[in-house]
Amino acid sequence: GGADLYLRSNQLPFMGREGLELEVPELNLSLSFGADLYLLPFSYEAQSPPRFKLNQIPDPFVSRRLVREVSSETDFAPALYAEAVWKPQERLKLVGGVRGDWDTVMQKGWVDPRAAAFFALTPKTSLKAAVGLFHQPPDYRLGMLSKTFGNPNLLPEGASHYAVGVEHDFTDAIS
Q1: Is the dihedral of CA 144, 149, 155, 157 positive or negative?
Q2: How many Å apart are CA 9 and CA 44, to the nearest integer?
Q3: Nearest to 131 by CA among 109, 111, 159, 110
Q4: How many Cβ atoms sit within 10 Å of the Cβ of residue 97?
Q5: Do residues 112 and 134 make contact, with C-beta atoms less than 8 angstroms apart?
Q6: What is the per-residue DSSP string for 54-122?
Q7: pTM
Q8: What is the pLDDT of residue 150?
Q9: Half-sphere exposure of 18 toward its Cβ, with a 13 Å CA cutoff?
Q10: What is the C-alpha to C-alpha distance for residues 145 and 69, in angstroms, rounded to an integer?
């Protein structure tokens, strides 16, 4: 380590969300549509030993060559989403949604579907279950997509979420 090894990053994020909700009372249905806009001007300056080659461990005492990179970019990441909440009967609520994202730094997009169900066993106790896909870009602000320090071929980080649970309202403030 030392003062000759560093990563400095500056970021100035701007975020906005706009949505529209429609109610269809005769079908017990509500629909939501919207857009998220994310604008991130960022820069970083980094200096460290070069990336080592696959299946090779660098010798820290022999090689002290350092590489440096300075980068400045602006990421624009728009997203669109839609969600439907349907109550086919008083005790059952079904929620379905989809979100589509695009990332200009990666030049890649992805679509994440999601669904959830809620069933009221009693007025205070409900069963619930959900499933969904969630993605985000690697942290390019820290050089993860850098040709010098990272891997420009990385894909979006993703996860599949599954949840099952019981919810009980003990009081208005505690559940």
Answers
A1: negative
A2: 4
A3: 159
A4: 16
A5: yes
A6: TT----TTT----EEEEEEEEEE--EEEEEEEEEEETTEEEEEEEEEEEETTTTEEEEEEEEEEEEESS
A7: 0.78
A8: 78
A9: 2
A10: 12
Contact 172, 73 (CB under 8 A): no
Q: What is the pLDDT of residue 97?
A: 98
pLDDT, residue 174, reads: 93
> Can you list the residues of the chain whose pLDDT is less than 70?
1-2, 51-54, 58-64, 141-142
Closest by Cα among 109, 132, 108, 130 to 119: 130
Interval 1-48: pLDDT, tens: 567 878 888 889 999 999 999 999 999 999 999 999 999 898 888 887
Measured between alpha carbons, how far is 57 from 42 in angstroms, rounded to an integer? 32
Question: What is the separation of C-alpha 115 from the centre of its chain, rounded to a whole number of angstroms?
Answer: 17
Q: At 77, which amino acid appears?
A: A
Q: How far is CA 40 from the centre of its chain?
A: 15
In total, the chain counts a number of residues equal to: 175
Spatial distance between the Cα atoms of 36 and 18, rounded to a whole number of angstroms: 7
